[in-house]
Amino acid sequence: MRKGELTKEQIIQKSAALFNQQGYNGVSLNDITEMTGIKRGGLYRHFASKDEIALLAYDYASEVVRDKFLQAQAGKQTAKDKLLSFFEVYADVVHNPPFTGGCPMLNTAVECDDGHRLLREKAQTTFRHFYGAIQEILEQGIQNGEFRSDLNIDSTASFLISALEGSIVLSKLEENSRHVRYSMENMAQYLELIGLKN
Description:
Blueprint: H1 3-22, H2 29-36, H3 40-46, H4 50-73, H5 79-89, H6 104-111, H7 117-143, H8 153-174, H9 178-193
Helix pairs in contact: 1-2, 1-4, 4-5, 4-7, 5-7, 5-9, 6-7, 7-8, 8-9
């Protein structure tokens, strides 16, 4: 990787942590220059605007979390264990989040609900991929005889994501990761209930 590309990558990575912690509106170009040690002119050598940095930073943060999800699923044999691995990634969201500041999709969705259209679209795309991945695991669970064939995949995927993201919000708010652990325990019981043996 050439020096210019390396510098650009470092700016994106460091900015991603800033944006995920402070939000788009909470981060200025001055904040980015202080964090990266690169002057404003240097930033403009690599990026057209703060928007461009923010969008690339979101992509980077989301990719880091996605990779953590994939690592957590590696070696898991059952659909149930694969689904619970999403909670494992956030089990200590307060002290050891998969990315600094917590869930990039959640943080961006909350801040940009009525605001930054392009960042909102990024979060929507992440959600669709996340939703699809969970639906795929549920479908595999039906195919391998783990879950009942009449399982509503759409509503179950929605329930799982809501449980995970809601527990992340509560854990971050209270500065106590117990809510993610509670959700994981309850989700494990729910997945037992929808098992074929029931």
